[in-house]
Fold this sequence. Notes:
The chain starts with a strand and ends in a 22-residue tail after the last helix. A hairpin with a 4-residue loop joins β8 and β9 (152-155). It is built from six helices and 17 strands. It has a six-stranded mixed beta sheet. By secondary structure, it is α+β, with helices and mostly antiparallel strands. It has a single domain, classed as Carbon-nitrogen hydrolase (Nitrilase/N-carbamoyl-D-aminoacid amidohydrolase).
Amino acid sequence: MPQHSVTIGLLQHASPVAATRADVLDRVAGLAREAAKQGAQIIATEELFASHYFCQCEDPALMDLAEAVPGGATCTFMQDLARTLKVEITASLYERRAAGVYHNTSVYIDATGAVIGRYRKMHIPDDPRFSEKFYFTPGDLGWQAVAGAHARCGMLVCWDQWYPEAARLTALAGAEILFYPTAIGWWHGETEKDKQHQREAWITMHKAHAIANGVFVAAINRIGIESELKFWGTSLVCDPSGQVIAEAAVDEPAVLMAECNLSMIEEQRRGWPFLRDRRIDAYGGLTKRIVDT
Length: 293
């Protein structure tokens, strides 16, 4: 089979509470320039990269962080950056759709600076220190596989990464790389054993999505301590066999580069034809909350 590779660059960094949006955007631009210098054709941000992770408390005033998408200052900044660097960018933003209606949204920007795809986070958590249902309306744009110049890219966000259905439906839509911008970390009161198990489970889920769907998976997580959470970094890229081909540190900023040979997708699916052997006639129960017996 002909070889077809794309180079991706994941931007892992801290977004401290004390930092201004201008400070964060300047830092992101520097990391993006480094990724482009190293040959990145697609650059991906972490979840809600332009500010601290504000969902640890419920404060209506923090909804002022939301912006128009496209049209807002942060989206426009990223469009200009993509145009300047001549790269494609997938960026995670806090979208103001209407008064009182806000989304956790990823956009896909091409090398001309045009927004060619938009995904609104479908699975919204509501846990201690992750009060996202207060801030985000569940997505209504369905599963996205955006046809960029170099690959068909699936845009999913953080909590989506725990759901095999989301990965499957995005892969079935044609995605070759699943991007998961992420904000996940440890609560200070957890045991070291619990912290280890959580991080390992998170890594395992990404490997499983890659294997089950025969696709590349890229997760981009933030770092740093914010209030009661320490974000564990570990941004990574898995190939279609589930091998981790690039991984960043737990607590250091990184421009994580990975070359993804998209030809491997066909090769992997020929050997492990999971999509071919699906019993689509027998999966009706998946549309139920639980199958009562």
